[in-house]
Amino acid sequence: MTSFRAACVQLRSSDDVAENIDAAVRLIREAGARGARFVATPENTTLMAPDGGAKLERSEVEEADTALPRFRALAGELGIWLLVGSLAIKVSDAKSANRSYLIDPRGAIAARYDKIHLFDVDLPSGERYLESSTVSAGNRLVTADLPWGKLGLTICYDLRFPELYRALAKAGAFMLSVPSAFTETTGKAHWHVLLQARAIENGAFVVAPAQGGRHANGRHTYGHSLIVSPWGEILAEAGDEPGVVVAEIDPALSAETRARIPSLQHERPFVQAREQG
């Protein structure tokens, strides 16, 4: 298991799909030029619409999506593994999927993952999100074989459900992807600690590319794309501006960390105690 360089591409996507594709392509090229063999972009890579209805209206079925062919061609040209954090892919008249694509160095789609946990919240700041109104939730755990080991795929709000990451680690994933568009409010409070916790709990690398800054539609995302080691160390971090961060990944560190803290082997069944009295 040789080491390799991974990169997070941080974006500030708008509702202009063509503009977003161009911005992502430019930064993916930069990551490739910096030696990254695995490059990941954030959730909502090509479209940050004002609301779910507008996003659904702009969505296309996979075969008609304009971004996917460009990203596939780019991965093939650069010879990289490219994780497109998520695209809005229409799956019915009323719903789209929030879908990650892993593209191999030949430009072929190696894996698809539909976000399982949807963001339906009312925040103290007054922000309200109801992702489930226009997005169809996934229900399938997804890992993919990279040359260096297995990758476990997740998206954004999935981060708050540790059982998903445990299942990915037990399925053999040494690295976990968390492309995101965390709000400024929740990001300041929880982004770093949650990503570091998922890395530490599972002895896995975490690669978390993010949207960052004030978007044209008024939404403010947290940024701070992170790459975290299996011991919980932050190996690379962005601010809130678009750009690229890069870190060296040694898959052997995951195996070493799991040997030092073998919690994946120590799980025990338990029952819920009944209330006494």
Describe this structure in words.
- With 277 residues, the protein is an alpha/beta fold.
- It has a single domain (4-265), classed as Nitrilase/N-carbamoyl-D-aminoacid amidohydrolase, CATH 3.60.110.
- The chain is built from six helices and 16 strands.
- It has helices at residues 17-33, 52-58, 67-78, 162-170, 184-202, 252-260, and strands at residues 4-10, 38-40, 81-90, 96-103, 109-114, 120-122, 128-130, 143-146, 149-153, 173-177, 205-208, 212-214, 220-222, 226-228, 234-237, 243-249.
- A six-stranded mixed sheet has the order 5-4-3-2-1-16. A six-stranded mixed sheet has the order 8-9-10-11-14-15, covered by helices on one side. It has a two-stranded antiparallel ribbon with strand order 6-7.
- Helix 4 links the parallel strand 9 (149-153) and strand 10.
- Helix 1 runs parallel beside helix 3.
- The longest helix is centred in the C-terminal third of the chain and has 19 residues, at 184-202.
- The radius of gyration is 18 Å and the shape is globular.
- The termini are far apart.
- The model has no long low-confidence stretch (mean pLDDT 95).
Brief sketch in words of this structure:
The protein is of the alpha/beta class and 277 residues long. 26% of the residues lie in helices and 28% in strands.
Mean pLDDT: 95
**Helix fraction bin:** 25-40%
State which percent range the strand residues make up. 25-35%
* SSE string, helices as H and strands as E: EHEHHEEEEEEEHEHEEEEEEH
Biggest sheet, open or closed, and with what strands and sense? 6 strands, mixed
User: Uncertain regions: pLDDT < 50 for 5+ in a row?
Assistant: none
Number of structural domains: 1
